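=== RUN LOG ===
request id: a7f3
mode: sequence -> structure
chains: 1
length: 163
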Amino acid sequence: MDSEFRTKLREALEDIDKRLRVLEHLTNDVIIGSLEQASAEYKDAADFDAFKTNYGEKLAGLINPYKALFGEDYDLERSLFDDLKATEGYGSEGFDEAGCMDARIADLQARIDALRAEKAEEKAEEKAEEKDGDPLDKDEPEELTEEQLAKEFEEAMKAGASE
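=== RESULT ===
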């Protein structure tokens, strides 16, 4: 009878152990994990809203040109926010978020301005050639379309990457 008791006791303990493992998984992975994920998503959304409040006005003039370059689904603000979060030192006491963002915004604006200027220069040269090469013609260059801007930006980015 002693071995039968031990067998039943071992089976009962194994059953209890299995139930404890399932309970531990539910508690840690499902309940606590879900709460941690929800908390992280809430914090990210709140931080992103603060980011848009701080920099949305400065980025307003860049959103449409970058959508023209990368497609209607492209979210420049989210992209910059994610890049900012990935920057070394982000969130630390000495991190200069405003300075970092001002530099990035200035760089983005400079790229768009350079593309527009390059395209305007090309159009002016084309008009000059059309008028029998008269270099003194002072016609205003046409504005870039969003498609032209996207194409020019892609070419400039490729040229910059190969340097």
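=== NOTES ===
The chain has one domain: 48-162.
The two ends are 84 Å apart (CA to CA).
=== END ===
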